[in-house]
Amino acid sequence: MKGELKDFRLDGKVAVVTGGNRGIGRACALALGQAGARLAIVGRDIAKLAETKKEISELGLQVLSIRADITNLMDIEEMVKKVLSFFGQIDILVNNAGVAIQEMALDVTEKNWDATMNVNLKGLFFCSQKIASHMITLKRGKIINISSVLGQVGLPEHAVYCASKGGVELLTKVLALEWGKYHINVNAVSPSFTRTEMATHVLENKVKLKSVLDRIPLHRLGEPVDMAAAVVYLASPASDYVTGHVLLVDGGWTTQ
Question: How many CB atoms lie within 10 A of CB 239?
Answer without folding.
Answer: 20
